[in-house]
Amino acid sequence: MKRIIPPVLLVICIVIMVVFWLVFPVMQFATFPVNLIGILPFIGGLNIAKRGSGLFEQRGTNIHTFKNPTILVTDGLYRISRNPMYLGFLIALLGVAILLGNISALLIVVGFFVITDRWYIQFEEVAMDKAFGQQYAEYKAKTRRWL
Predict the structure, then answer these.
(1) Contact indicator for 27, 102 with CB cutoff of 8 Å
(2) Largest CB tally within 10 Å, which of 4, 30, 61, 108?
(3) What is the average pLDDT across 45-50?
(4) Which of 74, 77, 66, 78 is nearest to 119 (CA)?
(5) pTM exceeds 0.85 for this model
(6) CA–CA gap between residue 19 and residue 74 (Å, rounded)
């Protein structure tokens, strides 16, 4: 799993969602044109993720999940969520699920959440704790993991 970085997992999830939509076109919860509302969370989620990564770029810190963190970013979107990039990916996936309008697509969104929350974020939190100690503990105490 260390070789699969979060943006790649996002793409894999979208592909699986589309395959499920094609292979198991049952349990539709949204059809055309109602499903088009999914465009908003898809674009909005990608925008949130991009803004989160943009702050890392501005600060000159490492964005790669499995490399050591170099700077603790706590401003901008990071005042609201410790993981705005993951939150953005999750919202974008929810948008894809709405666009597809299939219950099976929602299961992939849940799967992405669980993998992200239990694997990526926990891995990163250990690294952040090692790198920033008390400063990270204080940030963690005042800022939620997701929202």
Answers:
(1) yes
(2) 108
(3) 98
(4) 66
(5) yes
(6) 38
